[in-house]
Amino acid sequence: MDIFSYVVTHDAGFAPNPFGGLLTLATCKPRIRLHACKGDLIVGTGSTSTVGNDKLVYAARVSEVDSLEDYGSQQEYAIKRPSARGQRWRKHGDNIYVKVNGEWTQRRNLHHSKREMIRDLSGKHVLVCRQFWYFGGNAIEIPERFQKLIKSGPGHKRVRDPLFTKGFLAWLITLPNGRLGMPEMDAAEEESCCR
Q1: Does residue 143 register a pLDDT over 70?
Q2: Cβ of 78: how many Cβ atoms within 10 Å?
Q3: Residue 47 has what pLDDT?
Q4: Residue 192: is its pLDDT beyond 90?
Q5: pLDDT tens digits for range 33-55
Q6: How far is residue 39's CA from residue 46's CA, in Å, rounded to a whole number?
Q7: Overall number of domains in the chain
Q8: Buried-state track 88-112, b at ≥16 Cβ within 10 A, e below 16
Q9: pLDDT, tens digit, for every residue of 59-115?
Q10: Contact 96, 14 (CB under 8 A)
């Protein structure tokens, strides 16, 4: 079990998507999606321009690693497709890629245009997490003993220390789990950053 940690620079409920009873990472972070395995922990931390440094936006344990093709076509993940109908969070669905006649197409969405398609598809996988702690705008302080997992700047950090990882997971398990907050971006910020 490894930890993949990165800074969440835009938290609109898209990447990660903490809605529909699962936390999924289907876009952005292609290297994490390419290399993370079942059982690994994905950790998103805040930045000075969002909820603040040293804060936990979310942590999630990978339950399944699905292909983008399966994610886009399986009915089980239809709830993650972007939709203007229904609850407000549905418009932030991350299930935006589907193959039609052997060619990738992009579902209409608020967040990614065709410009991001090559980068998103290079990740090849979708990380599906049934056990997660998503705080969003209610991000919590990361205890000092776990701050070595915090990545500064772009990219990600991979922590392979089994004792550290087990200790971090033991701390997480003491917290309530599921979606414990909403994305920190308000509607005005969403519109300005997403197109």
Answers
A1: yes
A2: 12
A3: 87
A4: no
A5: 999 999 999 999 998 888 888 99
A6: 23
A7: 1
A8: ebbbbbbbbbbeeeeeeebeebbbb
A9: 999 999 999 999 999 999 999 999 988 788 888 999 999 999 999 999 988 899 999
A10: no
Helix (H, G, I), strand (E, B) or coil at 139: coil
In a domain, 88, yes or no: yes
Q: Per the structure block, which two tokens stand in for 150?
A: 């915090």
Residue 103 lies in a domain: yes
What's the rounded Cα separation, in Å, for the pair 4 and 44? 9
Contacts for 69 with CB less than 8 Å, ≥ 6 apart: 99
Could you tell me if residue 194 is inside a domain?
no
Collect all residues with Cβ–Cβ distance below 8 Å to 108 and sequence separation of at least 6.
82
Q: For the chain, where are the E strands, in sequence order?
A: 3-7, 23-25, 41-45, 55-61, 64-67, 97-100, 103-106, 125-129, 131-134, 140-141, 157-159, 178-179
Residue 105 covered by a domain: yes
**Residue 5, helix vs strand vs coil:** strand
Written as six digits, the tokens of 167 are 């200790």
Cut 0.85: pTM above it: yes
* CA 194 distance to own-chain centroid: 16
Q: Domain limits at 156?
A: 3-183
164, burial (CB in 10 Å: exposed 0-12, middle 13-18, buried 19+): middle
